[in-house]
Amino acid sequence: MWTYIKMLEFPVNIKTTNAALATAIMSQLGGPDGEKGASVRYLSQRYAMPDKRIVGVLTDIGTEELGHEEMVAAIITQLTKNLTMDEIEKSGFYQYYVDHTTGIYPQAASGVPFSAATLQSTGDPIADLHEDLAAEQKARLTYDNILRLSKDEPDVYEAIKFLRAREMVHYQRFGESLRMMQDNLDSKNFYAFNPAFDKGATCL
Amino acid sequence: METNCDNTQFDESEVVEASGELQAESCSSCGNGWSDDIRSGMWNDNGGRGGRGRGMRPCGDRPCGSRPGGVRPGSDRPCDDRPCGNRPGGVRPGSRPGGMRPCGPGNGRPCGGRPGMRPGMRPGMRPYGNGPRSTELGDGADLHSEWNCKSRVINTSDGRSMVMGCEGQTMSGCHMNDPMERLGDAFPPVMAFVPWQQWGDLYEPDCGLKQGTIFKDLNYIFCGTRC
Amino acid sequence: MENMCKEDLMELIQSTNFTVIELGLYLDTHPNCPCGLSAYEDHSRTLKRAVDIYERKFGPLTIYGVDSDTDWTWVETPWPWQKGCD
Fold first, then answer.
1. B151 near B184, Cβ under 8 Å?
2. Would you say residue C44 lies in a domain?
3. How far apart are CA B165 and CA A61, in angstroms?
4. Four-CA torsion B92, B95, B96, B98, nearest 10 degrees
5. Chain B CA closest to residue A143
6. Is residue B224 part of a domain?
7. What's the domain range around B202?
8. Engineering a disulfide at B109: which of A112, B95, B104, C62 sits with its beta carbon 3.0 to 4.6 angstroms away?
9. pLDDT in tens, C68-82
10. Structural domains in chain B (count)
11. Do B133 and B153 meet the contact criterion of CB atoms below 8 Å apart?
């Protein structure tokens, strides 16, 4: 189960409004490579993972991603808190505003609602870990793109920089998890069987 | 006695298992898991055979601390006085300042290093890096089947260990001059391998929070610009 | 630590909490690393002490840290995304 800590992992204290930036950052909340997707992905994959150390990695990173989702929501909330109607109309934010006002709704910047169709939990450890490596790189590049957009907003920039760095550390941990899974298998044929499902492999 | 491609001779009975040489998972100097024996037999950048040396990854003209494939654009990672090819924060075995690493108690194994066998392994499983026995090489272990190359590790009469390849074939185009491609047994194909992080220098907590990681080795900043 | 103001203590808690999380992830894949274990122990000790002081003086950080002799302060202190409380 989970305990909530009444504290952001990294402080978010944004003093200006910026509806356009909020729209872009929305993708890291509910987009295809966002934090909600990451947490759902890792916390779902952990049940079929046969190596308890990798279950630990998936649990701990999945939990951290929940905290990142909170940070992104905090950024968007603060960027839209004191928006005027003029700013809403002119920035393009009106499309989100009409359905959600300045509430938080998990969707991509394009308006596509969050969907588990953008993630997988295959029940095969090697496939799942490769999915996770790719997910971290996709999140990292999305943050690269957001950093380019937020150079003039230092409060936003620092928080995004933190979140981006986390993706790379997570990539390293998933890479090490893949190495641990390889250690559990026969290097003559890593794919002889699925250790989460098969009981043995006659060709080994 | 058998004859190498360069007419030096070796004793076939001294063929060693590639697997047995590749159990040194961690390499604090290169950080790429190569054992000294394999590295010392590496071909040098000019395609000739390397002698038994310390086994550092050839650097060519790469700047200190840089990665194969060139320096990252905008990279600002300091090199200090690390020997070429050495990992930041890494300490070569036998030269250990500061006591930060290695970690493994009593065995000098740096954190991130792995012995050959691991607990929980099922009988019949091979330890990491234990590829096909050298006498079986060529049986699904051809590195470059389109060139009809077969490779194996041998000990020569003058005490060198070498990776033999492409007997009777030209080496060009075989990727045998690329050190990374000669690790077929340690890193078999059709699989991704991320290097183990070694315990290194840490940021203080307040700086680590700002950077997004406490590990200096994992801090890769973004400095892309469109104009 | 006992005499730190709320903002400074929260800064200390955030940075130490992050360090402990980061070390925890490292130890998930390096469970036998004595350097990591030692660093984890040091920073965890600092974190526990800082959280005890903060909760006693400034309010709960988890639902388990409420001093129920007074009010239900869990819902009284600002939520983390509300400006001015970080």
1. yes
2. yes
3. 43
4. -120
5. B222
6. yes
7. 194-227
8. B104
9. 777 899 999 999 999
10. 1
11. no
Residue B209, classed as helix, strand or coil, is helix
Answer yes or no: is C86 within a domain. no
User: What tens digit of pLDDT does each residue of A33-65 get?
Assistant: 999 999 999 999 999 999 999 999 999 999 999
Q: How many domains does chain C have?
A: 1
User: Which chain B positions have a beta carbon within 8 Å of C34's beta carbon?
Assistant: 103-105, 111
Structural domain includes residue B48? no
Q: Which of residues 27-46 of C touch B (CB under 8 A)?
A: 29-30, 32-36, 39, 43
ipTM of the complex model: 0.94
> Residue A155 corresponds to which tokens in the numbers above?
């409060």
User: Is residue C35 assigned to a domain?
Assistant: yes
Instruction: For chain C, say whether A199 makes contact (Cβ under 8 Å).
Output: no
Cβ contact B101–C35 (<8 Å): yes
**Domain boundaries, position C39:** 6-70
Q: Which chains touch A (3 or more CB pairs under 8 A)?
A: B, C
Closest partner residue to C19 among B100, B103, B214, by Cβ? B214
> Contact, C15 vs B208, CB < 8 A?
yes
Residues linked to residue B9 through DSSP beta bridges, in sequence order? B3
Sign of CA dihedral C8, C11, C13, C16: negative
Residue B99 resides in a domain: no
Total residue count of chain A as it appears in this document = 204
- Tell me, yes or no, whether B210 lies in a domain: yes
